[in-house]
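Hey team,

Filing this mostly as a record. A colleague (T.K.) asked me to run one chain through the structure pipeline before their review meeting, and I want the input and output archived in the tracker in case anyone asks later how it was produced. No errors, nothing strange. Just documentation.

Input sequence:
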Amino acid sequence: MENNIYKTPLAGRYASSEMNYLWSSDKKYSTWRKLWIALAKTEQELGIDITDKQIKQMEENVDNIDYDIVAKREAECRHDVMAHVYEFGTKCPEAKPIIHLGATSCYVTDNTDVILMHEALELIKQKLILVIQNLRKFAFDNRFVTCLGYTHFQPAQLTTVGKRATLWLQDLLEDLEELEFVQSHMKLLGCKGTTGTQESFMKLFKDEEKVNQIDGKIAEKMGFDKVYDVSGQTYTRKLDARVLNVLATIAESASKFANDMRLLQHEKELEEPFEKGQIGSSAMAYKRNPMRSERINSLARHVMVLANDPAITAATQWLERTLDDSANKRICVPESFLAVDAILILYANISSGIVVYENVIKTNMMQELPFMGTEEILMNAVLKGGDRQELHEKIRVYSMEAGREVKEFGRPNDLVDRIAKDETFGLTKEEILHILNPDHLCGRAPKQVEDFIKAKVDPILETYKDLTKGVTTEVKV
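Output structure:
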């Protein structure tokens, strides 16, 4: 029967086991129980008659959840939190009277959501650093491999394979900076009651100073140092929007890389790693399709669309609380994390083994090189006494004619021969070919790679040098 139950492809097919666990029922509901324990300990510290025995009984049953009892109780009461309060009480009869004392449901649901998002961002950060590490090596190793640059996917001035990789790297550094900012500013809801006024605790303690300490004590027990100063029943849903926006920006960067890989694999300049037994096409055995890059694009599209959900939810919450956020949050938040986790696993896999076909790169470059070097030719001809305006017009005409030979008749690019035959340029063919040396036409690209890595990439990798140990990067399919 289990095999007939639908399971989300993100969980079963793409995402890592550690990210799956973070969004599992066991992780979620055991966190609820830890929050109930933190509340009980805080109330005990502030003078409520709660015994060590009650707290110990709760601690001993954090992971002892009977989901059958929960399901049966929820079917009766139609309330998931109260079903778990009931089930927890069956395991902790001594503590039953004080479980959830003074709290509202959002105490466990909202605080758990913040905790899970914070931990999930840490997993995302680990994989992000690993991709940065891979691209750093790729950029540095290929900083001198000159290639065609492209604007509008049309041949443009030369660059290097490594310099192009720094563009992918820079996007990820921007994403990391945004992730670090959002993660470091995440706050717990605390325990503020039905409309955020802590009225139930005022009745419980009859001491405003004690009530004022509750949030900070709970946060400290749960490993946080920040709590929202004010709230309704829930934390502001802008937090979900900020977190999913970070995930969307990572998806954007990965998708840009994947698109570039697909274009360059079509040009046969770069290629994804291709496994020994991998099948590129069920019909065309010779094909080596960029399947992993395509999957990144596919998953990224999903993440970018999901980022709209919490933004709309944040904009449409009514006053102190409405419940139209709940079902939406349960879907879009885990799905976004699982998808980005899968994206970064794919990105790490591809970036660790990109195949560079230097001979093809050179062939493609040499075909277009005469066009790329016309500015250099023009400057050298002017230095020999030529008229810039006259020579510019001639180069324009010769370039159009040479381009016609290539496009319409499939003949070699003969622009160099045309210019060499025109005496007004004063340049021999040998001189023109020397001018067109590719290494002289890619500007500061190699040095830009070195400077960027030294100034921007290496300090980050040094900061996080121990973060990527044991990170799952194996692509499931």
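Quick notes for T.K.: The first helix runs from residue 9 to 14. DSSP finds 20 helices and four strands in the chain.
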